[in-house]
Design goal:
Three copies of one chain form a homotrimer.
Chain A (H helix, E strand, L loop, with lengths): L1 E10 L4 E4 L1 H10 L5 E7 L4 E6 L3 H14 L7 H6 L4 H10 L2 E7 L2 E2 L6 E6 L5 E11 L1
Antiparallel strand pairs in A: 1-8, 2-7, 3-5, 3-8, 4-7, 5-6
Chain lengths: 138, 138, 138
């Protein structure tokens, strides 16, 4: 059985990192599925999803990491073409990826104790984001 | 229900970036599924899949990005061992990942407006590629 | 139908790279599914999964790659906060991602000939790891 749920989020952009674990857990608990997978997918090409230990040190570290591998201020052909200044955001989002698939059993996400699901909004301005949860299972 | 489809592609290698969104959309429309997920998987260890805004500026930018984080011309132990000169391609493919899973409803991929599904062929020569689409849903 | 399996692994940490392809193949063969997807998910925030050509040259190369993009010895706010010295491991794990989804048909993983599924344990000490396999299909 397939169940589609959506989470609406307002972000600050600029590498804003939001813990969406609880909202995903709630949707699984509220469904009639016991066991399966949830595909967490962000529509849009300047945000991505992954897991992390959600604590302030690592949140700062991952922002520094992305600034290091795809700096905001270097030349991007995208910026020349569209003049919107978010070339770095597109590159970061493509390398991180827009989706993650996580198993659940007995209505619980099978995450580690210090493992949270996060959305990173790389865009250079506040955005309203739609995260799609596709639940498949029994 | 599970439905397996395959897309055959000829690439130029060398970071050739191919938009495969339409072919995936067509396979979903041609199936008897309304809602579910499609796992897009490239067989092989020198290519990967992700999403991007498919425009020429970003296509150039992402090639520069990969050349920056895993340059073609530096030392790779793989190249010493096999002498095929594609060590960079393997590293890039492993970090990007060979698969992506995307939800669909009412026979439509739930992508953003400027979000396309791409194959990147990192190998250092033209390749024939098989992309597997595993559709699961109702 | 959804089937949950678990693989228990002892790693050496420090970028230990373990080929888990055979164990995943065995679980698919031993199941009553013919066709579907397997989501391979590692619980924990300092390990990741991907595919690679599993040969000693590339195993050395990918360790060098991660040391290059997220060095162990630079400053991490996480290390200041927790004093456990594994900030680099968290960053590497988040960028690689904790899961991969792979299609199978006729009880066989649809991998390339030189494409193996690996766990990379980025933590700075030996760890016992649980890899979850969520099989969905028919």
């Amino acid at each position: 059985m397939t169940i589609t749920k959506k989470i609406q989020l307002d972000t600050n952009g600029n590498c804003d990192i939001i813990d969406i674990t609880q909202q995903i857990s709630n949707e699984i608990e509220g469904s009639n599925l016991e066991t399966g997978i949830v595909t967490v997918f962000v529509a849009g090409s300047t945000a991505g999803v992954t897991t992390i230990e959600y604590e302030s040190g690592l949140i700062a570290d991952i922002k520094l990491f992305f600034e290091n591998i795809a700096p905001q201020s270097i030349h991007y052909n995208h910026n020349i073409r569209w003049n919107d200044g978010n070339g770095h955001a597109h590159i970061r989002a493509s390398i991180l990826g827009p989706s993650i698939t996580i198993p659940f059993t007995q209505k619980s996400l099978m995450l580690g104790t210090w493992q949270q699901i996060i959305l990173i909004d790389f865009d250079n301005r506040p955005r309203s984001r739609q995260v799609i949860l596709q639940l498949i299972g029994d």
